[in-house]
């Protein structure tokens, strides 16, 4: 099997970096919108927000996983 | 002729109908409104906790919920009870939680004992088997990652919330089994008899049905389990519950684990009234119309757990008033509605052990009134195995070393006062809305 050339490897790495940073951005935006209220008086996260953020991130990844499993299943069937 | 038309009351039959329907609706509505108000009261009491800052490199406080399906019923009733009464206060206090669930009798005991043994292993007590799989375990990996990232565990107490008498009995038994029993399975030969079902885990693997938000299995391949639940259910229709590693008779001769902490997670019992049966309908109707008292009671227990003030369990209930530390917690009448019996109640005795094992303690009497409500099928002993241990109907055996370490959450006097003030403020708001 032909090995991927270094150019292809670089391209693959670039795509992966883009995907990861895109997911990170979406995750932070979505969870910040849901968990952190507009009016705050201090810079530290309080406990309610911490717990909410933990759960939001966990749910986001689970949803991601389930959806990608389904899609792979669909792609595998075709 | 002019003016108001001649007003008439409805006929006698309609009057009867409307008054019955009206009375029932009024009773239900009043009860639900009051229940909501009770819930709001306790939620507001603990709100302040959620607003405290938490450094981003510290994990949040995780309370362990011990939840089990009551005798002759499934786990969904317990879950709904939890969602309705316990969860709002936990959410309002900004706490995270972790559930030890049990579907059948003994599941909670097995799950809890497994957790304790795992904690002992991580603290360094070497078991003779399973060293390698411990290193591959998700929790160990997570801990390593957290150490590297500099994330600290919550540095205060965590706490346990135990829902129902059945879960309470299993909780106490599980604690004893975990801390007094051996770290390894004393009878590993049993596992080889289990037919090869693709479950390659060693006897210390988790076969009880405990669920947590992050899957808390101790088997070496947790991902496999998640992806192929159907295969497992075909090959292994009933998950085997590991037998207790130590029996209550062996408690006095057992060696307490050296890594046992001086305080065993302060616990709070939560009442779980559950009545089945056709002839119990009048009582159930009464309870249906009086859920506000239950909400108040449970709210108080969970708020006490959230606020974190605790005291040791009494060794004998008669010594309560002469306790030297009684200035630190309020008198019995106002805050301990669950301590009903002043004498040690045995309830249903185990016919096979005539002499009493263990010491007397406050833990035995907790939520005892619930035992009378259980369905009679729970009290029937299996004819095939008369000597088999039944956690629910056997007497609770307390080892003094474990019982002395158990602590209980109580609500302090100031918090009671604040709760009363919040209740008054809420009723003022109600009347203002009406005006």
Layout of helices and strands:
The complex is a heterodimer of chains A (78) and B (435).
Chain A (H helix, E strand, L loop, with lengths): L5 H30 L11 H31 L1
Chain B lengths: L11 H39 L11 E7 L6 H18 L3 E7 L4 H16 L8 H6 L1 H12 L10 E4 L1 H16 L8 H5 L28 H6 L1 H7 L28 E7 L10 H8 L2 H17 L2 E3 L19 H4 L26 H4 L10 H4 L20 H6 E4 L3 H22 L1
Parallel strand pairs in B: 1-2, 1-3, 3-4, 4-6
Antiparallel strand pairs in B: 5-6
Helix pairs in contact in B: 1-2, 1-11, 1-16, 2-11, 3-6
Describe the structure.
- The complex is a heterodimer of chains A (78) and B (435).
- The mean pLDDT of chain A is 90.
- Chain A has helices at residues 6-35, 47-77.
- In chain A, helix 1 crosses helix 2.
- Chain A has 2 helices and no strands.
- A 6-stranded mixed β-sheet of chain B has the order 2-1-3-4-6-5, sandwiched between helices.
- Chain B is 44% helix and 7% strand.
- In chain B, helix 2 links the parallel strand 1 and strand 2.
- By secondary structure, chain B is α/β, with parallel strands linked by helices.
- Chain B starts with 11 loop residues before the first helix and ends with a helix.
- The chains are: A mainly alpha (78), B alpha/beta (435).
- At the A-B interface, helix 2 of A face loops of B.
Described by strand count, sense and barrel closure, the largest sheet of chain A is: none
Number of strands of chain A: 0
Q: Whole-Å distance between the termini of chain B?
A: 38 Å
Please provide the count of β strands of chain B: 6
Assembly context of the chains? heterodimer
Give me the strand/helix succession of chain B: HEHEHHHEHHHHEHHEHHHHEH
What's the shape of chain A?
elongated
Helix content of chain B: 40-55%
Return the structural class of chain A: mainly alpha
What is the straight-line distance between the termini of chain A? 25 Å
| Beta-strand proportion of chain B | 5-15%
Helix content of chain A: over 70%
Query: Which spans of chain B of ≥5 residues are poorly predicted at pLDDT below 50?
Result: 190-237, 317-355
> Roughly what fraction of the amino acids of chain A lie in strands?
under 5%
Q: Determine the number of helices of chain A (DSSP H or I, runs of at least 4 residues).
A: 2
Total helices of chain B: the number is 16
The largest pleated sheet of chain B is described as:
6 strands, mixed
Mean pLDDT of chain A: 90
Computed over alpha carbons, the radius of gyration of chain B is 25 Å
What radius of gyration of chain A results from the CA coordinates? 18 Å
Helices and strands of chain B: which structural class?
A: alpha/beta
Pfam family, one (chain A): zf-Tim10_DDP
Domain Tim10-like (chain A): 10-72
GO molecular function (chain A): metal ion binding
InterPro entries (chain A): Tim10-like, Tim10-like_dom_sf
């Amino acid at each position: 099997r032909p090995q991927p050339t270094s150019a292809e490897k670089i391209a693959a790495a670039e795509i992966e970096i883009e995907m990861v940073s895109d997911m990170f951005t979406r995750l932070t935006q979505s969870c910040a919108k849901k968990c952190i209220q507009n009016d705050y008086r201090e810079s530290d996260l309080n406990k309610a927000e911490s717990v909410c953020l933990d759960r939001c991130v966990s749910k986001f990844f689970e949803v991601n996983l389930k959806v990608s499993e389904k899609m792979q299943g669909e792609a595998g069937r075709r | 002729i002019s003016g108001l038309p001649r007003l008439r009351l409805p006929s006698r039959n309609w009057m009867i109908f409307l008054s019955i329907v009206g009375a029932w609706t009024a009773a239900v509505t009043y009860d639900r409104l009051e229940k909501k108000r009770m819930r709001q009261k306790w939620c507001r009491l603990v709100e302040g906790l959620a607003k405290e800052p938490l450094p981003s490199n510290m994990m949040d406080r995780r309370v362990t919920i011990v939840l089990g399906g009551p005798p002759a019923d499934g786990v969904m009733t317990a879950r709904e009870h939890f969602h309705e009464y316990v969860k709002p206060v936990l959410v309002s206090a900004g706490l995270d939680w972790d559930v030890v669930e049990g579907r059948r009798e003994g599941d909670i005991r097995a799950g809890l004992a497994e957790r304790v043994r795992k904690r002992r292993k991580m603290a360094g007590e070497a078991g003779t088997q399973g060293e390698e799989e411990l290193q591959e375990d998700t929790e160990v990996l997570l801990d390593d990652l957290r150490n590297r990232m500099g994330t600290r565990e919550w540095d205060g107490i965590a706490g346990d919330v135990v829902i129902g008498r059945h879960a309470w009995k299993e909780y106490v038994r599980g604690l004893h089994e975990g801390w007094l029993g051996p770290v390894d399975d004393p009878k590993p030969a049993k596992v080889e008899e289990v037919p090869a079902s693709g479950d390659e885990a060693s006897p210390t693997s988790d076969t009880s049905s405990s669920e947590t938000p992050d899957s808390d299995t101790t088997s070496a391949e947790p991902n496999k389990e998640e992806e192929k639940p159907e295969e497992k259910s075909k090959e292994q229709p009933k998950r085997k519950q590991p037998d207790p590693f130590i029996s209550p008779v062996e408690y006095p001769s057992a060696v307490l684990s050296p890594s046992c902490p001086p305080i065993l997670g302060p616990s709070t019992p939560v009442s779980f009234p559950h009545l089945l049966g056709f002839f119990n309908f009048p009582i159930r109707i009464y309870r249906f119309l009086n859920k506000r008292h239950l909400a108040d009671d449970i709210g108080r227990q969970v708020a006490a757990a959230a606020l974190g003030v605790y005291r040791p369990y009494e060794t004998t209930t008669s010594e309560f008033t002469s306790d030297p530390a009684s200035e630190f917690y309020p008198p019995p009448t106002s805050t301990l509605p669950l301590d009903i019996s002043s004498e040690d109640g045995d309830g249903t005795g185990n016919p096979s052990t005539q002499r009493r094992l263990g010491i007397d303690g406050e833990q035995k009497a907790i939520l005892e009134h619930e035992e009378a409500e259980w369905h009679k099928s729970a009290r029937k002993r299996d004819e095939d195995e008369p000597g088999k241990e039944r956690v629910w109907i056997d007497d609770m055996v307390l080892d003094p070393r474990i019982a002395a370490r158990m602590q209980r959450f109580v609500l302090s006097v100031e918090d009671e006062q604040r709760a009363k003030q919040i209740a008054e403020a809420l009723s003022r708001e109600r009347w203002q809305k009406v005006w």
